[in-house]
């Protein structure tokens, strides 16, 4: 083998995509000493997005103090690549781990995400790639917009920063401040889901439970998003509610479109484009991809689906390495365009059993590539 491209997602709960990429790269290098290895760790817009971009194409990571999800000051960061493009992962200022046991999506805010974007723009960035994933919020991106200059008003004329619980109090919006700040800046939201802003498949119903919302609160959050959507339509002339992905990250997808003048794009497609993946595939002998669990959803707009789609154009075989491969998927690998799949663990193993030796176990499994006919 002369050239191998390694494009893994994270093994959630055990290894980041950078760690997975490093383990696989080392083993392939040992197996094929003369092989040219191209490693591209992938993130879906949540935690690790900045590290993946900086690692894949070079750049720098900037530390900034911003407001956390409940108003506390926290140390956060964003990345700068290609000189003037900021990579912001909303999880760095409004992610679920930052809730610190206080899971309350009705009160959590994305204000700190807006502060990260503002810092990047004031520092000269003319493009922003915003990772939408891993949020603890449900504010429709209102907090983010407020930090960028958008003003929200109650019925009594007072200006305030809405949260998920108070979106229904918004009666008018002045977006001129954000429009001025972001003039000439291209905003792209990385989003690999198609959930709408509200409804049974919307932000509150689908993602609210994992953020700590009970049945009653989910209904309140959904109702508030509906009301907020109507105000956006009336005040800004945009119906963002049914845009595919508008429900991402507590409906921040809707906020990106409504207040930032941005667009929602496939995260995997954007990253593969930025790193010139198609060029890497030229004269390539093998692509190795993977994720924590390989199942039907893996081929439905996710990392592996994007990798396979591009590899097919160049007739490059793809092998997947996963923590666990579902049996029904294994039987259909050929139809998906995957030449083979390696499962690292037995499904019956729990996280406590896996964590201590996860890197070693992954490395040993990759050694089986020497015997896999592709």
UniProtKB/TrEMBL annotation:
GO terms, molecular function: glycerate kinase activity
The keyword Transport is annotated on this UniProt entry: no
Family annotation (Gene3D superfamilies): Glycerate kinase, domain 1, Glycerate kinase, domain 2
Keyword Transferase annotated: yes
InterPro entries given in the database record: Glyc_kinase_flavodox-like_fold (IPR018193), Glycerate_kinase (IPR004381), Glycerate_kinase_RE-like (IPR018197), Glycerate_kinase_sf (IPR036129)
Keywords per UniProt: Kinase, Transferase
Top-rank lineage group of the source organism: Bacteria
One of the GO BP terms on file: organic acid phosphorylation
Family assignment from sequence similarity: Belongs to the glycerate kinase type-1 family.
Full protein name: Glycerate kinase
Species the sequence originates in: Zhenpiania hominis
């Amino acid at each position: 083998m002369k050239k191998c491209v390694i494009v893994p997602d994270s093994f959630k709960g055990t290894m980041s995509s950078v760690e997975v990429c490093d383990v696989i790269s080392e083993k392939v290098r040992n197996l094929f000493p003369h092989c040219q290895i191209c490693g591209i760790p992938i993130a879906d817009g949540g935690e690790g997005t900045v590290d993946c971009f900086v690692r894949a194409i070079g750049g720098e990571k900037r530390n900034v103090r911003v407001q956390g999800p409940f108003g506390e000051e926290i140390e956060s960061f964003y990345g700068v690549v290609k000189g003037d493009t900021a990579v912001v992962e909303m999880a760095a200022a409004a992610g679920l781990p930052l809730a610190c046991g206080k899971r309350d999506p009705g009160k959590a805010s994305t204000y700190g995400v807006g502060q990260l974007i503002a810092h990047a723009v004031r520092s000269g960035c003319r493009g922003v790639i915003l990772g939408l994933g891993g949020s603890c919020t449900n504010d429709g991106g209102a907090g983010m917009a407020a930090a960028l200059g958008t003003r929200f008003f109650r019925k009594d004329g007072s200006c305030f920063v809405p949260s998920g619980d108070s979106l229904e109090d918004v009666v008018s919006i002045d977006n001129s401040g954000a429009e001025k700040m972001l003039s000439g800046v291209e905003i792209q939201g990385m989003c690999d889901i198609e959930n709408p802003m509200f409804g049974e498949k919307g932000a509150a119903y689908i993602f609210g439970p994992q953020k700590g919302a009970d049945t009653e609160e989910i209904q309140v959050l959904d109702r508030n998003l509906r009301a907020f959507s109507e105000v956006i339509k009336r005040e800004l002339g945009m119906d963002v509610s049914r845009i595919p992905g508008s429900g991402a990250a507590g409906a921040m997808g809707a906020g990106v479109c409504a207040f930032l003048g941005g667009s929602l794009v496939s995260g995997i497609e954007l990253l593969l484009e930025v790193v010139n993946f198609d060029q890497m595939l030229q004269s390539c002998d093998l692509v190795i991809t993977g994720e924590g669990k390989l199942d039907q959803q893996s081929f439905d707009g996710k990392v592996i689906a994007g990798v396979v789609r591009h590899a097919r154009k160049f007739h490059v075989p793809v092998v997947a390495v996963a923590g666990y491969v579902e049996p029904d998927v294994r039987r259909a690998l050929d139809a998906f365009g995957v030449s083979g799949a390696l499962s690292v663990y037995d499904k019956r193993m729990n996280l406590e059993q896996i964590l201590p030796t996860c890197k070693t176990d992954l490395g040993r499994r990759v050694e089986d590539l020497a015997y896999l006919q592709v």
